[in-house]
Amino acid sequence: MTPSPLVYPMLAMALLIFAIMVGTLVTRIYHLRLGLVRLSYFRLMKSGAEEVPDVLSRTARNIANQFEVPMLFFSVSLLSIQLGLADENTVRLAWTFVFFRALHAMVHLTYNKVPHRLAMFLVAQVSVMAMWVKVALAVL
Prior knowledge:
This protein is mostly helical. The protein has helices at residues 7-33, 41-44, 54-65, 69-82, 88-109, 114-139.
């Protein structure tokens, strides 16, 4: 059985999430080993009086972001496959979403300029919203 072409952007998005998870773990271990943060910080992600490196907050927030809108992407992708809506346009929208989510994560985890991040976020949002509109129009 040949998989739907929509499976490939879904796999790419999962790979991106796993890569960010590994990067987050490496960043945390690195900062622990250098003594820049205490292990107790990770209990509730609160530092008390000590200053926590910005990169730890950004990586924590970024990994949390991967379990917000991307879940809408995965669910609409599965619905599109199930409903037979995984045509060329839907696949393009899916790849657009994944590409701009990857750019968003790179900006967030590196130089973190909010206007740049916002632009990436908006393009990804519009892509996944268009996928949902397509599903809604097909079933209503």
